[in-house]
Specification:
heterodimer; A: mainly alpha; 0% strand; B: mainly alpha; 5 helices
Chain lengths: 84, 141
Amino acid sequence: MSDLADTLDTAADAIGSSPLPGLPGAAIVSTIAALALRAGAAFARAGKDPVAEITRLHASDPLLAQVRTDWDAELAKLPEKLPT
Amino acid sequence: MRSFWGMLVVALLLAQAACGPHADEIQAAVANSVARAANVGLPALVEAERQQGMAAIQASPDRETARAKLTQIEHDWAPVWTAWKALSATQGAWATALEHGGDKAAAALAVRDAFCRLRALPLAASYVPEAAGLLCPPGGS
């Protein structure tokens, strides 16, 4: 899918940078085609990249460690055990 | 002129390939959706447990009492984090299958089960939203 995104981007560059001369409306059509290709490339990249979100799933460990640190700091404000 | 329309047809075909319902792309989109839904809930889940612990400590007369309450809170939250780790592991396996090949269907089902188990937990359900493209049966996986 990454290859597809790269291919679409390359095609968008080619179409966007070289509209056919002398044809009425060619520049507009080229721009629209280039935009469609760039949208396709963006879609392909977004669909391809679950890894970024999945990597964040592993962020639970440091967050939970921070919770324990916060608890320890709050615990330190208390006496160890009240005298009975 | 002919080459221009030829290029346009190729461009539209390529765009169609990018947006078409290709199986891997659909799986990758759902994988992303599940991970995103879980990640939306993560900060709230962590903060909810943190707040419970802080409230328990502040309501305790001494550390011994507070530690006993914290142990109970950790016990209550343990199923959530066990389910979270299972989801994280199955998502990793799914991403590997999508990127490098493997049994994608089995990996997708494992993610679905893990996500639905997480959402079936009362402590987690209110923080982890539904994932687009994935339906959990009533009562979890």
